[in-house]
Amino acid sequence: GPDAPVQSPDQQFVRPEGSLFLQGPGDSRAIAMNDVMQLDSQHCWGLSILAALAEKQPSYVESMFDEDENHWYVRYFQGGTASWMTMPKTLPMDSTGGAVGAQSTDVNPAGGRELFVSVFSKFMAVAAGGYDQRGSVSEMAHMLGLTDVSTIVIADHGVSQSAQWVNAAANDPK
Fold it and tell me: Confidence band (pLDDT; 50, 70, 90) for 2?
């Protein structure tokens, strides 16, 4: 399966500890908008959709992912037909062991982190050709099988910083 290109020579792919979904402290459910945290990637265009879906349609987010012992699978659509991108269970880490791209805010006190956000970030990097590559909200919406982006963009700017980020990303040029 594909691994996305790393951003710099001091980064490597490692197998992270954690699980795809984790209900963090204060969360009302395992998949929530506040889970999505962009780090150093140019992927606000896709992460904004993931955050909006996590808020409004968490079951859709859960249905986008699958895994086995050695791989993650992310569902996407091409020409209206569903396919699964297969990726090894590795994520890019910098020289200090920090995540690259994006990660969840939820950490398991026993060890590990919620991984769906980082796996989605890797999916975007593979699809776009790197963590430093940009795309558009509409392109990602079509890849995820969404027909109307406006139905998932959160209109209430007071919900959280993430809601403002969703709105800003929807207006961000390619």
Answer: low
Query: Which secondary structure element, helix H or strand E, spans residue 65, and what is its range?
Result: strand 65-67
Structural contact between residues 96 and 57, judged by C-beta atoms closer than 8 angstroms? no
The pTM assigned to this predicted structure is 0.76
Residue tagged 């500890």 (tokens): 17
- pLDDT per position as a tens digit, 126-144: 887 776 667 766 777 777 7
- Relative to beta strand 91-93, strand 102-104 is unpaired
Which residues are CB-neighbours of 31 under 8 A, at least 6 positions away? Answer: 21, 54, 58, 61, 62, 116
Instruction: From 4, 6, 16, select the one nearest 114 (Cα to Cα).
Output: 16
Q: What is the dihedral of CA 142, 130, 47, 65, to 10 degrees?
A: 70
What local confidence, expressed as pLDDT, does residue 62 receive? Answer: 94
Q: Which two tokens stand for residue 110?
A: 């026993």
> Counting beta carbons within 10 angstroms of the beta carbon of residue 62, is it exposed (0 to 12), middle (13 to 18) or buried (19 or more)?
middle
The whole-angstrom separation of Cα 41 and Cα 36 is: 13
Are 90 and 13 within 8 A, CB to CB?
A: yes
